[in-house]
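Thread title: Can someone regenerate the structure for this chain?

I was given the following input by a collaborator and told the matching structure tokens would be attached. They weren't. Posting the sequence so someone can regenerate them.
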Amino acid sequence: MIGMFDSGLGGLSVWRAVSALLPELPLWYVADQARAPYGGRDHGEIIDRSLRIGRHMQAGGAELLVVACNTATAVAVTHLRRALSIPVVGVEPAVKPAAIATKSGKVGLLATKVTLESRRLKALIENYAADVEVILQPGTGLVEQVEAGELDSADTRALVAAAIVPFLNAGVDQIVLGCTHYPFLSPLIRDIAGPDIELLEPATAVARRVSSLAGPVHRVCRDTPHQFMSTAPSQRSTLAMHRMLGFSFPVMPLQL
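Best answer:
Regenerated them for you:
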């Protein structure tokens, strides 16, 4: 079984990609909605929550852990790899492919405040995008809108516009979606950004990485059903899941 967690429902963008590539692979998804979003919390709390969830999933039989959260990856993935005995796959903004693809020499990166300020992101930019201009922009309020299932409301459109227009004014031709919640807002982002801007997100790359590691797990556990758990389950989050995926699963409560 593959464990996967996020602060909330945004990691379902990664779940969707992994499930599409490996449809028989059982996935155990945990949403830490009692503390979502992670993007406004301090590093110590993010590390503590990530370790609690990772240890719980390893003890529960997960043979591989996907950190389906850019913020948790930026802050806690090194700690998880030290603490756990199973492989840990993180999610990082698609800075490298954006830097390769840009023709304008300008790339926009939309992410949470914690991700934007992380040393991990700074190293990513220095290593792969030193020759281009990377314009950083926080996606203020966007995680909350996705968690509420407000994917196309007037309020969400206003927040998306506030985040995207600075990129357009700067002349970017690539926008990196540096939070797993943001792909669910891609239709709005495309509508505002226009057809000439490319959106990049890492879910497909993460799915390929999981596929490369999960062969034995796939063979052993193919009959195990998917599991969804939340530290704050609600009917509202179930409805949001349905809007995001087009279907929903029963969400079980989890206390950690």
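The mean pLDDT is 93.
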